[in-house]
Amino acid sequence: MILLIKLFLAHLIGDFVFQTKKSIKQKERLKLKSSAIYIHIGIHIILLFLLLWDITLWPIILTIGVSHFFIDASKLVFQKKKTKRLWFFLDQCLHIIMIFVAYFIFIDHSFKISSIFTQNNLLLITCVLFLTRPVSIIMMVVFSRWNIEKLTSGNESLKDAGMYIGMLERLLVFIFIITNHWEAVGFLITAKSVFRFGDLKESKHRKLTEYILIGTLISFGIAILTGILYLNLK
């Protein structure tokens, strides 16, 4: 396990500490003609050698180094201005996957793909996915009976901020419940109340306050029920 931690540490240092904004802009401008991408890969390989400090582990270092180059090169070639955020997360996910793949191929040969798709893991994945986009859509349908745009007119907010806040709060509630930290759920409700209801004191905000309160209770209620269901089925 310590070896796996070292691999992640090398990735974090190489991608977020030793990579400057200047080098990133140069890579995006010149793409594969930029020297920055090759320096970046070289830094990763050197970091892996220094942290692992074992020449016999060269296959895992080479695998991660080569895969890192192809992932970064694909990102530079295919990403557009509108897809930079998507490619950032895709890039990081692919790097993490390759670290796991290289580790289990060259170090831990006991790993089997079937161990991932256990009943408990599938149930957990299903619950987590349900609490994100599906519940957001369900709540949109529930609130479609009211004119939400009229209630929120004049109250500027970030695009889709409410949806993402709802997803995060449901996931947090779910995590608190399956880890048996119910007191944290109360703390989360209190914290949200302070932020969301603090400026809704005037009578003209009554409908908006009721809308937020109903949404919060439904969101938390679904997350709590999902957590209880998971604990009883796993």
TrEMBL record:
One Pfam family hit: DUF3307
Top-rank taxon: Bacteria
Transmembrane segments: 35-53, 59-78, 85-107, 122-143, 171-191, 211-233
Keyword annotations from UniProtKB, A to Z: Membrane, Transmembrane, Transmembrane helix
Key word Membrane present: yes
Keyword RNA-binding: no
Name listed for the protein in its UniProt record: DUF3307 domain-containing protein
